[in-house]
Fold these 2 entries.
Entry 1:
Amino acid sequence: MFHGETLDAVADVLAWVILVLVPIAGIVLFWLVHILPEQIAEKRHHPQQEAIKTLCLLSLVFGGLLWPIAWLWAYTRPVAYRMAYGTEKHESYFEEMAEKARAGATTADEIRHLREELETMRARGALPAPLLGLLAELESLQAAAATRESPAARTPPAAAGEGR
């Protein structure tokens, strides 16, 4: 296939590729695997996602030894957290649900459930300041969603030929 000088040139190119690209690809793969628990925690709205993120960063420093702990932690439901704070969701969950409610993409029951969770957190004294304003806003959004869903609010389209 290759002979003489061509073989040497191909070997030189292959050596540079292996010496440069393979370590870079290995580092990127190592990093991507180590941020998976953080991404899982964010997707599941884990209430301790900042701590999981910190553990992922520490795992990078310690060569991946802490990564399995972060992975397991991201998939667990913190039972004691719910008992202490009244929810098992991160603040970002409530903010995302409020955005959906503002856009009209949630039902009145979903908004009511969200308000109940926030009320429980407020009763326990664990409601952060940004969510206090959200609680007041959800009341008006719930009323708007209820009128949007009620059968009286919907007017059926006129049948063809009516009113002639």
Note: The mean pLDDT is 82.
Entry 2:
Amino acid sequence: MPLPVTNQMLLTPKANPVRLAAGRPPMAPVSGVVRALPFDGDDEELVEGVIAGRADAASALYERHVDGVQRLVFRLMGPDTELEDVVHDVFLRAFESIARLRDPAALRPWLIGIAIRVVRIRIQRRMRQRWLKVMPPESVPEVGTTPDMSLGEALRDVYGILQQLPPDERIALVLHRVEGLALEEAAASCETSLATFRRRLARAENKFFARAEKKPTLATWLGEVQ
């Protein structure tokens, strides 16, 4: 049974698309000017084009996969002012290391793996910053939360619980329960064994449901799944 997410959770916050370089608004067609056609090819051909230095392939790769990466990052981090920075970082890392991608046809799971690593680093950095504070962690304001966003109480409670989970457990729960990845695919994306991923997922589910039971906003959903 998936986590209690509504359509709000399936979409990233409405924001300007992330761009890896300063872009310009499209210009009206000019008579007599020949324009390049959009890149037409599958992911394997996209990767080959990027490695060959084709700007149209790089642009097409970004446009084809940015929505999926934004959605995953939002589901992992929740409403956060650093979302665009994280997505930007994911694609920077992807373009810098794409020549090392062994199987170009596996572009999507490879991007998922990069996104997971970038998000994990952000989460762990924040956790370390909180431990350095004199005050207890629960008293430290959440970094990057945006309370003015129109999110329901239930969704805020979901992310409140997720933020209390260790990074690897949060990632396991979101990949399997929210993204709907099969256990094998999710474990591969996390670069861990299936057995290790199962243990992380089990711990995350136990903690999540135990804490969700204390949230009145999640009572209806819990009644449906229990």
Note: The chain has one domain: 7-13+40-225.
